[in-house]
Amino acid sequence: MITKYFSKVVVKFNPFGKEAKTARLLLSSIPPAQRLQGTQIQSEILHASSSKTPIVKITYKDKKEMELDPSTVTFQELASYFDRHSRQLKLKESIENS
């Protein structure tokens, strides 16, 4: 998963729900060095009786926001969903540096 272009990550999930594995894998895929470079990470634990829905919301360095419900997808599907925009930013960066 390409996390280099993330500027903010918001994850809300129930630790006992089916979305917990996907949300935790996403959080663990962000390297500690990137956290020190300014990527904001916000996580919220939802209770079983909570009316809030689980969500993963990514804000990229170009201010584009993408969100997804982690209870409806696997980690591989979530990673490919967010990697689409990351690959576009990577291509744009390589063109500008050439």
Automatic annotation (TrEMBL):
InterPro entries tied to this protein: Ribosomal_mL53, Ribosomal_mL53_fung
Q: Which UniProt keywords apply?
A: Mitochondrion, Ribonucleoprotein, Ribosomal protein
List, in alphabetical order, the Gene Ontology terms for molecular function in this entry. Answer: structural constituent of ribosome
What Pfam families does its record include?
MRP_L53
Answer whether the UniProt record assigns the keyword Ribosomal protein to this protein: yes
The record's Gene Ontology cellular component field reads: mitochondrial large ribosomal subunit
- Subcellular compartments: Mitochondrion
PANTHER family referenced in this protein's UniProt entry, alphabetically: 54S RIBOSOMAL PROTEIN L44, MITOCHONDRIAL, LARGE RIBOSOMAL SUBUNIT PROTEIN ML53
Q: Which family does it belong to?
A: Belongs to the mitochondrion-specific ribosomal protein mL53 family.
Name the UniProt record assigns to this protein: Large ribosomal subunit protein mL53
Source species: Torulaspora delbrueckii (Yeast)
Q: Which gene encodes it?
A: TDEL0B03600
